[in-house]
Amino acid sequence: MNIFRAHRPATLAELRAQLDTLEARSRRVGPAALPFGLAVIDQALPWQGLPRGALHAIVGAEGDGAPAGFCIALLARLSAIGPVLWITEARELYAPGFAALGLDPARLLLVEATRRKDKLWALEEALRTPALAAAVAEIDTLDLTASRRLQLAAETHGVSALLLGTGEDALSEARAARTRWHVAAVPSISGEGDIGPPHWRLTLEHCRGAAPAAWTVIWHNGEWREVDSPNRTALSAVAPRRARA
Q1: Angle between helices 144-157 and 116-127 (to 10 degrees)
Q2: How far apart are CA 45 and CA 105, in angstroms?
């Protein structure tokens, strides 16, 4: 796991050099969409999965680790195509936690950035590096113009972009995102009373060409499994949020 701090000029150059090296290498071209492998979700999306080379917003409540867990699970699948990059404010991230959710830390580049403009710079540079499969940025606010810019970069170079935000109105203006997900943790107790694998409530709040929907899923051994049936009509009962038009 390589770590860069985007607020230092020297490490900006190091990051650019690392990205240039990745770009110079050939990589296997993956499918146009990343299937969840869960028919009820894949069939609800126009692309039969999560479209690659696109911008996606993933949000959740303050202090809930489920949105980050969902991002890691997606990156675990995408890392089979190419390395992935995470832009974070945290000074240390727990590598075994990534591995526990299926993401090999050796496939992960970390960029430490605290200023919003540094995060956006690092994300856009990453999206212009086709050797990467995906990039994640922890950011709570993004306007329509900036989201369009990121969507264009992702689409042009085929790199998936994940925005990770927390709070009720996080990323509410990032309207160029192809999909917007609200992710919340739900109790995960095994039949023996032990803590089981992660259980998440996934709410698809916005997706052009698809209706809002929600599912409770388990992420275990690199695969998704549904716990109950989707509720497409009463999202207010799933999470107290305003679904986007």
Answers
A1: 30
A2: 29
CB 105 within 8 A of CB 95: yes
In the structure, how many helices (H) and strands (E) does the chain have? 6, 12
Instruction: For residue 92, count other CB atoms closer than 10 A to its CB.
Output: 9
End-to-end alpha carbon distance in the chain = 39
Query: What is each CA distance from 27 to 17, 81, 104, 130, 137, in whole angstroms?
Result: 18, 7, 17, 9, 23
Euclidean distance between CA atoms 213 and 25, whole angstroms: 39
Q: Give dist(CA 89, CA 198) in Å, integer.
A: 24
The strand ranges marked E within 6-159 are 33-34, 50-51, 55-60, 84-88, 108-112, 134-138
| Cβ–Cβ < 8 Å for 210, 45 | yes
CA dist 216 and 226 (Å) reads: 6
Predicted confidence (pLDDT) per residue in 204-223, tens digit: 999 989 999 999 999 998 99
pLDDT band at 224 (very low <50, low <70, confident <90, very high): very high
| Residue type (1 letter), 134 | A
Q: Cα-Cα-Cα-Cα dihedral of 41, 45, 51, 56, to 10°?
A: -80
For residue 231, the Cα-to-chain-centroid distance in whole angstroms is 23
Taking the C-alpha atoms of residue 75 and residue 98, their distance in angstroms, rounded to an integer, is: 10
> What DSSP element (H or E) covers 20?
helix 9-24
For 190-205, the pLDDT digits (tens) are 555 567 789 999 999 9
Here the tokens at position 242 are: 């305003």
**DSSP string covering 182-198, please?**
EEEEE--B-TTSSB-S-
